[in-house]
Write a structure and sequence with these properties.
There is one protein chain. With 95 residues, this protein is an all-alpha fold. It contains 3 helices and no strands. The longest helix is centred in the C-terminal third of the chain and has 29 residues.
């Protein structure tokens, strides 16, 4: 049986392999910024969702400073990736 930490390691490993594939495909087709922004949003949302589910099902949980720092970093990733996608969309509509 797979533990929660083992599952998290597999998911993060999958996202790292996916990021590498996106870098290769993005360089070939010239859509690197859009693909990286989209994958960063997916990764950040999945990390926040994983944390929230663990928080809901834990009998007792004390929120540590490192968890708050990671969550704030993920919110920054989502914000900057969303801004990048909106900026790319707006620049294409003006051409």
């Amino acid at each position: 049986m797979l533990t929660q930490s083992g599952f998290a390691i597999i998911v993060v490993g999958f996202f790292l392999v996916m990021q590498l594939a996106i870098l290769i495909v993005g360089k070939i087709f010239g859509k690197l910024a859009m693909l990286v922004s989209t994958s960063n949003i997916l990764l950040a949302v999945s990390i926040i969702s994983y944390w929230m589910l663990n928080l809901l099902f834990a009998p007792t949980h004390f929120i540590e400073l490192r968890e708050v720092v990671v969550l704030c970093a993920q919110v920054l990733v989502i914000t900057s990736a969303s801004y990048s996608l909106v900026l790319q969309h707006n620049s294409k509509s003006f051409k």
